[in-house]
From TrEMBL:
The family this protein is said to belong to: In the N-terminal section; belongs to the HesA/MoeB/ThiF family. UBA4 subfamily.
An individual GO BP term: protein urmylation
Name of the coding gene: UBA4
Protein name from the UniProt record: Rhodanese domain-containing protein
SUPFAM superfamilies (UniProt xref): Activating enzymes of the ubiquitin-like proteins
PROSITE patterns, per database record: RHODANESE_3
Native organism: Gymnopilus junonius
Pfam families the UniProt entry points to: Rhodanese, ThiF
């Protein structure tokens, strides 16, 4: 607040802004850490993946104690340790063409901290359609890139810069090619910086691509970019590519893990965040029907008020017994959000698909974003 050019008004702007970070890995962790510490009012984290030991060399919000946890949850926990008053929305799902608009829509600025080309195009097309700036980072081996897309009314999008995806053989993941952890730290921090500059109104309006090479001399280079390309299919017809593109096919495959997990990819609209369920409970006069599919002994230890317990095994043996009448929605919950997906799928197969929703991240997410006193283990 004492920084000349920021001051109290600047801090207020940060507090009133909202940002969504897609990918809580090597780039997302440092970006989230600084965005949280800076006091951004609302931060969404989207990542369907879980923490693995090989991630810890660079994904610095996760640690040995959060191995196996959803990265989105693990990152949120670490951020709340910096500032317990932060508002963090945990979205432990893969971003897909079906859910992108609804998940990204509530936020002012979008950060691309992912690691695969289909998601980059998807995020770009969604940001163009939503008219929101996209702060995009990438890192591999000793190198990184940073670019802010869709700035102002004429800033280029990712497709303006790369109308066609790179040849499949030139693309590799960090786990295949390796990465110096600190390189993702540098780019992720710069993503946080560019985001904060946009919020404070201090961003550079002339677009550029920043290239970083840890072994280069000098390590940073910047290339000036043109404004929007008149031939760009996304900028000319916002929303159209999003509705018509099979992103994995467009990029020449192979499918990232989240696409082969058909459970996640095809079920947008059939899932609900813990926060949304809470809002629903608070706002509706009739209490929503909640089915808790954990074993009875776990349900006995702690449960949501007025939830019913039908252990998964029991439900799978007679799913027809528990299908809701078409008038009521049914919310299925478990500890971490896996068994509830299986249960919801079994119920949906019985017919009235739209009525059954599973709670993403389960009771763990509930305790992270809704009620920190909820005694989940
Ligand atoms: N479509 C998507 N929706 C949500 N998260 C995504 C999507 N695509 C990629 N991500 C996330 O972006 C992050 C990228 O980070 P990073 O490459 O450092 O991690 P990683 O995938 O765990 O790495 P590794 O290649 O070592 O396994 C991952 O956590 C990944 O789950
Ligand atoms: Zn474009």
């Amino acid at each position: 607040m004492i920084l000349d050019g920021v001051g109290l008004p600047g801090q207020v702007k940060l507090t009133q802004s909202s940002v969504v970070v897609v990918g809580a890995g090597g780039l997302g962790c440092p970006a989230l850490q600084y965005l949280g510490a800076a006091g951004i009012g609302r931060i969404g984290i989207i990542d369907h993946d879980r923490v693995e030991i090989s991630n810890l060399q660079r994904q610095i919000l996760h640690n040995e104690e959060t191995l196996g946890m959803y990265k989105a949850e693990s990152a949120a926990l670490a951020m709340k340790r910096i500032n317990s008053e932060l508002t963090v929305d945990v979205m432990a799902v893969a971003l897909t063409a079906d859910n992108a608009m609804s998940l990204l829509h509530p936020y002012d600025i979008i950060l691309d901290c992912t690691d695969n080309v289909p998601t980059r195009y998807l995020l770009s097309d969604a940001s163009v359609a939503l008219k929101k700036p996209l702060v995009s980072g990438a890192a591999q081996k000793f190198e990184g890139q940073l670019c802010v897309f869709n700035l102002g009314t004429n800033g280029p999008c990712y497709r303006c810069l790369y109308p066609q995806p790179p040849p499949q053989e030139s693309v590799g993941s960090c786990s295949e090619l390796g990465i110096l952890g600190v390189v993702t730290g540098i780019i992720g921090n710069m993503q946080a910086l560019e985001t904060i500059k946009i919020i404070l109104g201090k961003e550079d309006q002339s677009p550029s691509l920043l290239l970083f090479s840890a072994l280069g001399s000098p390590p940073f280079r910047s290339i000036k970019l043109r404004q929007r390309k008149p031939t760009c299919v996304a900028c000319n017809n916002p929303g159209a590519p999003l509705n018509s593109t099979d992103y994995v096919q467009f990029c020449g495959g192979p499918s990232p893990d989240w696409v082969s997990e058909g459970r996640i990819a095809g079920l947008a609209g059939h899932r609900i965040q813990a926060r949304e369920l809470h809002e629903l409970i608070m706002s509706s006069t009739v209490r929503p029907r909640i089915l808790d599919v954990r074993p009875a002994i776990e349900y006995g230890i702690c449960q949501l008020p007025e939830s019913e317990n039908v252990p998964l095994k029991e439900l799978l043996s007679q799913p027809e017994k528990y299908i809701p009448s078409s008038a009521t929605d049914l919310y299925v919950i478990c500890r971490l959000g896996n068994d509830s997906q299986i249960a919801a799928e079994a119920l949906r197969r019985m017919g009235r698909g739209a009525c059954v929703k599973d709670v993403i991240g389960g009771l763990r997410a509930w305790s992270t974003v809704v009620d920190s006193n909820f005694p989940i283990y």
